[in-house]
């Protein structure tokens, strides 16, 4: 007791500045978090919540004297009755079907090659990422010339290789080819990011695993199949999911090169949305499309979580 | 490892070494072929931008002349790099640079501060904020853009620089990247500084931020690319030359009946230079730190 007696006031003195310091610290933390929280709220959360409300109104783009009316799910019903919407959904599905093997395959192949201890591999890694930093608009300028009909480079090469037997292809003007052409340039532009993700995944596989199966006498192919592939499972899931989500948001290259044509063969969900909102000025209707787009992306993202959980990562 | 395994491992290694030699050759050949396919379109762009005649550019495209220019000229660049009037790509380039600089500068500060507090703060509800931020990551820009256009036009922000900068400064992805980076730094670092009486902001500013060069480089590159390549948003919120970014301006080439490929190519090369410089400056840290951080996010 006697020993603790002088200790008490000492702690009491110590806690007061400590508490003040705690409060100062709390204020600082709030101050550091506040800008991000405020900006995210204003420019992400609010418009996101608003989009659900706007989707159920007849909100026009330019304010009109007549008040904006609540019209329930009418916009959604109209969308589901519009053939063009289903065409755009079908088109992005086709796009996804093609882009997944082309883009992810290219990314995986380049990552596997760059993971080897080859000379100049850092140089090549930098080089292979160049298309990813190229703006989609610039990509459209380049590929717009490559796709020229009938005498563009692609047609020249095909004509040369086939000895003139294959007729020139109207890459962007033929409804059968337009989407595939968009796939080619999109894959070229975007595979760099997936390549980096694959490289990260490959680096994450411990060398001991390779050594262990080598002792068991596994050859190069077996090592690839039994160590590399299982080790990359979460990476594969991640890459496939982000590529799919990107694919459903397809817009810029289509807006610049084909405007959704020819004969709606490259119409996409986002292009459909922008046209409804800004050419037809039906912002409520366009918001309804954006809500559908969000739900699609959400389902894909949830699917990823389920898959990753199954692989126990 | 058992004693028996060592000799088998050695013979195995010897047998493999000869196989590796030929494998290396195949791999190197593959890399060269892919590099050719990947880079030749960009090389063609550069070459074409140095040719004066737009019809000649198209005619050359189908042959090896696409990779060769006999009398290079900078006249295309001179034509498009005006600061005002028609073809004012000089101005659009500066607009884009200004937007990129502000977005990345503000983004680095705002997102890293938030990531730091989420990783090391004592605020109650941090875990909740973090999971909300991660949840927000799912929302695509495309699906909030319609109401956002109404909001900014009501606020009178259309056709300004601010409208192209402020909405994209804070981002769930970059907050998360910073959070992840800060969280894996050792606890002793924080505790030692705290012991010396440094405030939270001081610890962030003087100790953690200088250590986070890889994260800063990664976020700079990713944000820079994102800001530089914005297309949908600026076409919705800019109408005049005043704040028009170069991406939107280049796209207008496609609206013409006959495309001026020579000018389009020169403008495209102009557009590539700054982002290429940014990438080359930060690339060293970018590749090593992007590693792993994305996959589990």
- Helicity range of chain A: over 70%
Quote the average pLDDT of chain B.
85
Q: What's the shape of chain B? A: flat
* Largest inter-chain contact set: A-B, 101 and 99 residues
Beta-strand content estimate of chain B: under 5%
Whole-number radius of gyration of chain B?
A: 25 Å
N-to-C order of helices and strands of chain B: HHHHHHHHHHHHHH
User: How helix-rich are the residues of chain B, as a percent range?
Assistant: 55-70%
List the helices and strands and how they pair.
The complex is a heterodimer of chains A (313) and B (297).
Chain A: H1 7-54, H2 74-81, H3 83-115, H4 121-128, H5 130-133, H6 136-146, H7 153-161, H8 178-203, H9 207-215, H10 220-231, H11 233-248, H12 252-257, H13 269-279, H14 283-310
Helix pairs in contact in A: 2-14, 3-8, 3-11, 8-11, 11-14, 13-14
Chain B: H1 5-49, H2 54-61, H3 75-80, H4 89-120, H5 126-136, H6 145-154, H7 162-165, H8 172-183, H9 187-195, H10 200-211, H11 213-228, H12 232-237, H13 246-251, H14 261-290
Helix pairs in contact in B: 1-14, 4-8, 4-11, 5-8, 8-11, 9-10, 11-14
Give an overview of the whole structure:
The complex is a heterodimer of chains A (313) and B (297). Chain A is an all-alpha fold and 313 residues long. Chain A contains 14 helices and no strands. Chain A is flat, with a radius of gyration of 28 Å. Chain B has helices at residues 5-49, 54-61, 75-80, 89-120, 126-136, 145-154, 162-165, 172-183, 187-195, 200-211, 213-228, 232-237, 246-251, 261-290. Chain B has 14 helices and no strands. Chain B is 70% helix and 0% strand. Residues 1-5 of chain B have low confidence and may be disordered. Chain B is mainly alpha-helical and 297 residues long. Classes of the chains: A mainly alpha (313), B mainly alpha (297). Chains A and B meet through helix 1, helix 3, helix 4, helix 5 and helix 6 of A and helix 1, helix 2, helix 4, helix 5 and helix 6 of B.
Name some characteristics of this structure.
heterodimer; A: 313 residues; mainly alpha; 0% strand; disordered N terminus; B: 297 residues
């Amino acid at each position: 007791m006697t020993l603790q007696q002088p200790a008490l006031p000492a702690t009491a003195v110590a806690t007061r500045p400590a508490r003040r310091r705690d409060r100062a610290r709390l204020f600082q933390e709030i101050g550091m978090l506040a800008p991000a929280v405020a900006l995210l709220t204003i420019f992400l959360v609010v418009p996101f919540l608003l989009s659900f409300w706007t989707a159920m109104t007849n909100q026009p783009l330019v304010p009109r004297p007549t008040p904006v009316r609540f019209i329930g799910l009418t916009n959604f019903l109209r969308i589901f009755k519009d053939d063009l919407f289903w065409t755009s959904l079908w088109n992005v599905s086709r796009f996804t079907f093609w882009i997944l093997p082309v883009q992810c395959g290219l990314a995986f192949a380049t990552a596997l090659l760059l993971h080897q201890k080859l000379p100049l591999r850092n140089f090549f890694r930098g080089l292979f990422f160049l298309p990813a930093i190229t703006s989609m608009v610039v990509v459209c300028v380049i590929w717009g010339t490559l796709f020229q009909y009938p005498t563009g480079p692609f047609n020249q090469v095909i004509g040369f290789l086939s000895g003139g037997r294959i007729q020139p292809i109207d890459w962007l003007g033929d409804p059968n080819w337009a989407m595939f052409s968009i796939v080619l340039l999109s894959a070229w532009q975007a595979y760099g990011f997936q390549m980096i993700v694959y490289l990260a995944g490959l680096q994450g596989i411990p060398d001991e695993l390779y050594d262990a199966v080598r002792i068991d006498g596994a050859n190069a192919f077996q090592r690839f199949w039994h160590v590399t592939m299982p080790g990359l499972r979460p990476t594969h899931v991640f890459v496939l999911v982000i590529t799919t989500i990107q694919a459903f948001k397809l817009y810029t290259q289509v807006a610049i090169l084909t405007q959704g044509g020819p004969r709606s063969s490259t119409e996409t969900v986002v292009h459909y949305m922008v046209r409804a909102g800004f050419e037809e000025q039906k912002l409520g209707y366009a918001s309804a499309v954006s809500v559908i787009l969000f739900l699609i992306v959400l389902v894909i993202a949830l699917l990823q979580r389920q898959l990753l959980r199954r692989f126990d990562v | 490892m058992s004693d028996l395994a060592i000799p088998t491992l050695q013979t195995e290694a010897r047998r493999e070494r000869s196989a590796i030699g030929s494998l290396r050759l195949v791999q190197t050949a593959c890399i060269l072929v892919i590099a050719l396919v990947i880079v030749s379109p960009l090389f063609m762009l550069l070459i074409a931008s140095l040719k004066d005649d737009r019809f000649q550019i198209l005619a050359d495209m189908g042959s090896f002349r696409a990779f060769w220019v006999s009398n290079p000229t900078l006249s295309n660049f001179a034509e498009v790099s005006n600061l005002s009037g028609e073809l004012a790509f000089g101005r659009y380039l500066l607009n884009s640079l200004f937007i990129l600089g502000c977005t990345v500068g503000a983004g680095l500060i705002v997102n890293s501060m938030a990531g730091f507090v989420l990783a090391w703060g004592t605020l109650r509800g941090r875990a909740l904020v973090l999971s909300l931020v991660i949840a927000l990551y799912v929302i695509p820009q495309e699906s909030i853009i319609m109401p956002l256009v109404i909001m900014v036009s009501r606020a009178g922000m259309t056709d300004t620089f601010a409208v192209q900068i402020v909405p994209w400064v804070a981002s769930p992805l970059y907050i998360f990247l910073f959070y992840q980076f800060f969280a894996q730094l050792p606890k002793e670092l924080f505790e030692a500084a705290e012991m010396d009486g440094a405030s939270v902001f001081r610890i962030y500013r003087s100790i953690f931020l200088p250590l986070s060069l890889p994260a800063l480089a990664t976020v700079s590159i990713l944000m820079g690319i994102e800001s530089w390549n914005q297309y949908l948003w600026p076409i919705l919120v800019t109408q005049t030359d005043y704040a028009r970014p170069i991406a939107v301006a280049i796209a207008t080439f496609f609206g013409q009946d006959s495309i001026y490929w020579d000018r389009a190519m020169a403008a495209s090369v102009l557009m590539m230079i700054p982002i290429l410089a940014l990438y080359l400056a930060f690339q060293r840290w970018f590749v090593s730190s992007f590693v792993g951080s994305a996959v589990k996010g």
